[in-house]
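Handout, page 2. Input:
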Amino acid sequence: MADAMFDGLTTRAIVGAGLALVAIVAVAVGGVAFTVLVAAAVLLMSAEWSVMQGISRPFRVLSLVGLAVVGGVAANASAGLAVVVLGAIAGGLGLFMVGFDRRRAPWVTAGLLYCGLPMIALLWLRAHADGGAIVGWLFAVVWATDIAAFLAGRTMGGRRLAPAISPNKTVAGLIGGVVAAAVAGAVVAVIINARWAADMLPIMLAALGAVLAVIGQAGDLFESWLKRRVGIKDSGTLLPGHGGVLDRLDGLVPVAVVVALIVAATPPGLWR
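Output:
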């Protein structure tokens, strides 16, 4: 039993490190490399979402095509137009599906929004003047949250955070994730020499990291609820030790959208 657990953790660590390395390189290179990585992740997320919700194959394909169109608009036009196109495709496809499967039609719309909004957010953020640093910092905060929450929950145990949704998540894990994200939020911005962080106090960066950690873990719980609703443990089997792509990116989904909204709402001089 102990050997099997150790092997599982080792596999999880190796796969996680490999994914992080690919993401870091794509963020650093930017351009087509980053766009391709985000698009591939989003299309895999959509496929897993559709299977999870029992959506028929034709609508799975239409969802993938719709997201590809939105990604093209986001990469080559503007984020605002991409959001409009996403809304139109999500609403239109959902309404079209009502005539075929009324019960699952809302899940087609929800899946497109769930996968499409973070895609638009990440592509828009990376295209920002200081986009590499912003996205790199965002990833670091999400990763710090995930790793610390997992380790704190495993080692400390204790009170369950939301036993009806995810029996394995603990309050200790939540606290560990928040603390780690606060540290990462303050430290990583300095390490990567982010221009947008030059005028922000470390306490502000730490507070922002902590808030994003809570949002990320709420995203984790939401995905756990989705899986419990349909009676599955993992969204897929593509990533050994992690499950599916949705399982790996559930915390990133809301954080990417929130960070994009923050950047859009703050004065241009802050996020140079």
